[in-house]
User: What shape does this take?
Amino acid sequence: MTRRIFHIANAALAIAFWLFYGLKCDGTMHGIEGDSLFLFTGQFACEMLGRDGGLSNWLGAFLTQFYYYPLLGSALMGLLLALLAEGVARFCKSDLTLPLALLPSMACAILLLDPKWTPALPVALCLCVWMAYAVSRIKVLWIKVVCAFAAALFAWFKIIDCQFYTYAVAPVKTYYIVFAATSLICAVSAVIPQKKMKWIPSIATVLLAAVFVMAAPRKVDKLQEEIADYSYMVRMRDWDGILVRAKGGRLSSPLSANAVNLALAMKGRLGEDMFNYYQNGIRSLINFEERKISSEILYLLGFVNEARHLAFEDMAGNPSRDRGVYHLTRLINFNAVDSLRLPIAQRYLNTLHKTLFYRHFEPEQLVCPQMEPSDDFFFNFGDFCQMLGFLYNQRPQNERVRDYFAASLLLEKRTSVFSSFFGESDYCPKSWKEALQITKSLNGEGTAPELQEYVDKYNACHGSAGGMGRFSRTYWYYFNFR
Amino acid sequence: MKRQLLGILLSMAIFACTPASVTKTGTAPELVPDIAGVTVPRNIAPLNFGVTGAERVKVEITGGESRIRVSGSFADIPVRQWHRLLSQADELEFRVCARKDGKWFGYEPFRIKVCDDEMDPYVLYRRIDPGYELYARMGIYLRELGSFKEKVVFDNSEVSPGCMNCHSVARCNAESFQLHLRGNKGGTYLRGGGLPDRVVDMKNSRTLGTVYPYWHPSGNYIAYSTNDIRQSFHNVPEKVLEVYDLASDIVIYDVRKDEITVLPQLADSTMLETFPAFSADGNTLYYCCADRADNFADVRYSLMAVDFNPADCTLCGEPRVIWQAPGKSVSFPRPSYDGRWLMFTVSDFGNFSIWHPEADLWMMDLRDGSARPLEELNSADTESYHSWSSNSKWIVFSSRRIDGRFTRPYIAHIGEDGHFDKPFMLPFRSPDDEALMLQSYNIPEFCSGPVSIEKDLIYNTERKPITVR
Assistant: This one.
């Protein structure tokens, strides 16, 4: 009875993890998958397995590739967690200790909700637990001793010392506490004599599972999930998806604003709609600290060299110090723009074609060489507006860079410069019109009726942002209140 | 006996390239990598290769009385049989059949020459992603040239993770070895001068950081350039980035005393001096020198020489220009160890030639001072770093000829007349291994013996300070 309840609880937890992770953390899962790489080559296996903790890392990378389909990836991770709990339960002679067998997999599940923890952790735990169980089943003592030593050595070098965290400073203590707790649970469970109990373990198991299901979702960082979602949609060129997600105009981070502004530019609506969304300075257009989205922005604008630079640095700066499929797809797309760099794109493509889900990947055709700078200049990260101006001057037909340049001038409130560039333009979307009206008004060339209406409202509200109502989505509002 | 007979029958079955089944193309196969017509030493690993577009290849290699037959998705030549063949023959003939779209094609045979001049058994290099500012995995590796074995000398993950660069051995002898390490375990690892291995801290208040090293033939000195390096990023497709010096000088480091000597002639603040290299006899110091200029594209380095007195670590006489050309800039002077040749890299400007597609190798005959571009080695893309084997019969050089980005080492043999035979790429186990290698091979240097370093010195010892004179 108790065992049956344990199995049901274990399965329920695995299913809960599967559905929650796969449905609610899909953006994060895509991010993890993009930063990792699994190649079906002997060379890759040898290289991975040769490193410390190589077996866990290799199996972890193998599982991570399935995050490409979040529901499939989370199902596999759910299975792995269930397998871990099942492994620990094998040591439990007494029903009393059975609920404890769920704890290691619960700890792993909670840690996995933080994207910095890799699947190498549950893989390592699972391997160790099942290896220990296999050794415990050996009947002949001397074989058991020899196997225990061999397994311990193997576990230390190829399983435990793995890359369980994708960040420079790893929480080693937490990792070893989880390991120590798991081995303690196994040891205690093996020592406590066999005893049949019905209700106490069953209730404890159910309670434990319920507490976990209630508490685990709180571990999810919603802001991180939002950014991961936008980042994934930029990666998949899902411009409509970005705008649907941003509906209502509320954006929690500048990176979300970067994605939304890029989507607007790609749909040709940046000048028209950008102030329907929260904007705050040029950081709303690009953040060079976040190399993934910014490299995509630079590429789609035509700064292909600089996009390659950032994409490469993103790969080199990957906390795991390994390449990821998203790094490679970007480098392929960015190198495929110029015929000069096609052989480089081909080299990255060779690698990508050894993966499971990208074996048919082909470079996209979203940027052409005619969008790139025609005359050389050194890129200055400190003055993105100026860089946009250089490119716009060289490639006035590049509409994306035109819109971004105009947007950067507006966001920096350089309305007179804006007027000098775009005052005579035939194309004049809403935000441009509003900016030009401000310039005219400031130059004493008359105030447009709409602007006058805004000024009256502004005066009526005594300069308070809260009461501006429908004007809160105008450039005038941004000009006054941001 | 039965087994041998079976083997013969099997190989006959495999190589049944009868005229009926094979279409003769009358052309040479398109090899990956190109090994047709190259010259190899007797101690080189098998030159495995593939044929472009082929699903399967069958290759018969004949040398003297012996032959090897291989088949597969690429020519995977057994190491032992290959060495047996190389030890017996002066020329190898390769007959290649390739299956493309289900049909077999036969190609014209090609040959490679086998040379008696020995080559050092190892090459030492750094492997690094060919990038910009950041680095992920990098390491110093020692490659056994007679096989495909590669040993990690030091990996940057071991110094959580730091940069490492400018490894250098004295005249291919690993008994004198130095390696710069950056990051929290930074310092210069030194072996030589009759002292135990140590990690020294080259930082001092009088000079910039030491960068490009070159060992004196005695093993007692290392000439270093000290550079204030910057990099900027181009925006047009044909250029990538520019690495340039705001300031640079040359200093001499006494390995026995852990002492740096600042030489006034090579520390002119109005000039940029870099890439030092001692002559084979140790009495001349070659280096590159340029006037400072506001625009990095106007900086052009001349090849210079100055007499060096190893007895007291001083310079004699004035530095003299030994080669310069309008619109050209010199980097990496490397004299052969027999004192006969001086090889250097020539680009349009600056000194960081690896990012200059126009960079080519040149060589000066030190007997008469004449120099020529090495057309037989150069390609349309970058050729940059180069170093000589200990007997000065082989060179290993970096080239980006495959795709313009991923640097690979090439090895070439020099004849008595100063002309090189066709170079070959450092052998890879398979064309796929090369194609999937997303790292560049930096600063390849021949090595006569294995290199190892005492990692404990890097982790646990205090950096030894140096004195400056």
